[in-house]
Design brief:
Blueprint lengths: L2 H26 L5 H7 L6 H4 L2 H4 L11 E2 L4 E3 L5 E6 L7 E9 L4 E7 L4 H4 E3 L9 E7 L3 E7 L9 E4 L1
């Protein structure tokens, strides 16, 4: 027999075994009511995947001011040295990206305390290595939380504005 005939025979045997095993497997797992089985399914959280929130946040939707209370984009820290912003939950998006810009540089600190079960996104601060001098980036989980915008110490009377981009 030539090499081509051997290869064809081996492939046919593999195909027949695949079909036999597929039919046997389908006959073994019979569900009485597939819709109730689907409704009973409970997924378990995967902390390894939740830790990717910081990596995936640049591709997630942006935080909209209407999802915050108070719903404003600009925070003037000359008038108030600190703002507490509540971020409402959003079940449609696993993560939302919040980019803040401080003018002048490093005049403010932005931190996030979340209601998430994942420790990696539950507490974030603008002092992290992911932030530049102008840009303050936060990954907001779907559960929401609280953003604190405060003036950096020492407090002075000069202008300091933080804006949500």
């Amino acid at each position: 027999m030539s090499g081509t005939k051997v290869v064809v025979i081996v492939l046919v045997v593999i195909a027949v075994l695949f079909v036999v095993l597929a039919v046997w497997g389908a006959s073994q797992e019979k569900s009485v009511n597939p819709t109730t089985d689907r409704q009973k399914f409970e997924s378990t959280p995967h902390p390894q995947l939740q830790s990717l929130g910081g990596l995936l946040s640049p591709f997630s939707p942006k935080l909209d001011p209407t999802q915050m209370q108070p719903s404003q984009k600009t925070f003037d820290l000359r008038l108030h040295p600190s703002y507490q912003i509540t971020v409402l939950p959003d079940s449609k998006n696993k993560f939302r990206q919040a980019k803040f810009k401080a003018t002048p540089d490093r005049c403010a600190r932005v931190s996030f305390d979340g209601h998430s079960s994942s420790a990696s996104v539950n507490s974030q601060d603008s002092d992290s290595k992911d932030n530049t001098e102008h840009q303050l980036n936060l990954a907001i989980p779907e559960e929401g939380g609280r953003i604190t915008v405060q003036r950096e110490l020492p407090l002075n009377n000069g202008p300091c504005t933080v804006q949500l981009e």
